[in-house]
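Researcher: Before we compare anything, I want clean individual predictions. No alignment, no superposition, just each chain on its own. First chain goes here; please echo the sequence and then give the structure tokens.
Model: Echoing the first chain and its structure:
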Amino acid sequence: MNVPPTPVEPRLTSLSHGGGCGCKIAPGVLSRILEGTSSMPIPKELLVGIETSDDAAVYRLNDEQALIATTDFFMPIVDDPHDFGRIAATNAISDVYAMGGRPILALALVAMPVAVLSVATIGRILEGGASVCRAAGIPIAGGHTIDSVEAIYGLVALGLVHPDRVKRNSDARPGDLLVLGKPLGVGVMSAALKKGELGDAGYAQMIATTTQLNTPGPDLAALPGVHGLTDVTGFGLAGHALEMARGARCEVALDWPAVPLMAGVRELAAQGHVTGASGRNWASYGRDVALPAGFAAADQALLSDPQTSGGLLVSCTPAALDEVLAIFRRHGFGQAAVIGRIGAPSDAPRLTVA
């Protein structure tokens, strides 16, 4: 009896024109798209909206509780369906932690090319997301599915925070130190992976970083010396540091040699493994970044490299630094490091890299 061959499914990354947070619309284009939306009525209970490009919306429920609401979804950054689901879920939940909150539940957003991917593959993507939600201690309580040309997965994530502990990306103060919780390089590694030139060790490093939940967020938010908090994702370190600078109306100085990088990522960037999103990011905000003479092209690419499920970026007083680093270490973020400082107030904030 002739048995028909099992259909060969395409690589997940071959179905996406851009993977992970590299799918984001460039910051400059996004600003133009959102022009005029600030004219909408704003209820007094809305503590955080779209005005500061923050990580999530925050709505006061009562004197003790505020609801954090966010959503994040994207196309595959890796080919393994379970890993894709894990990365997407970790990335979505991160915005709750970045506001200083604790997640309470999630809704799944699922858009899949059902004529191209098998039910088993789609199921593995969802299983990956569910495993991360279990690790975060929350249920996936519902969601929505559609048939799509490209594979897209993500979550709506909801959380709770005390109104007095909400941490905005705009609340940094002059003299604060900047601490980054995870190393950079996810976009560069994903570009190498898509070309089949990322080794097993690099892939393992990439997965370990992108699936590590940013659980220090609530403990950091409880510290009086922590003023600003965000996470570094699709706009790269430079983009999110500039958002912090503009929100606080302050200069920001970055100590590039102190910035943690994933092992081998500078070499990959020098070989040309960079994403298109990195260039779009730089085109949007590079004019507001001052680089030192001789700054390498690979380092510039890493500065604007889109981070999928990137690390927390914390603005804190020097007196709170030891406690901030201790919290990161306690949660398993051994590479957390001081990478810069919030400078003087400015009407035209810039990022200066040394």
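Researcher: Okay. Second chain, same rules.
Model: Second chain and its structure:
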Amino acid sequence: MDSSISQKIRERVSRIEAGKLFAINDFSDMDNDKLITRTLSHLQSDGVIVRVAAGIYKNPKHTQFGVLYPIIDQIAQKIAGRKLCPQATRL
């Protein structure tokens, strides 16, 4: 079962637009926070995603100058949305 949840997380991450922020709680419908965290950590280690803050990730958007990181306002909005209304930030 863990491998099927992990695969669903990987598939969902692959559909996220490059440069868009997402958070661990965007996967809360899978009801396995430890596995979600572990899978996202593996994806980060593999270079598939980039961790921009605690619990916040993005698919890297590459430019001729390297990876484009979000501005602090985007990260702050994602943090605020995650705490105020987690369902509004679901993918």
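Researcher: What stands out in the second chain?
Model: Residues 19 and 60 are 6 Å apart (CA to CA). Additionally, Confidence is low (pLDDT under 50) at residues 84-89.
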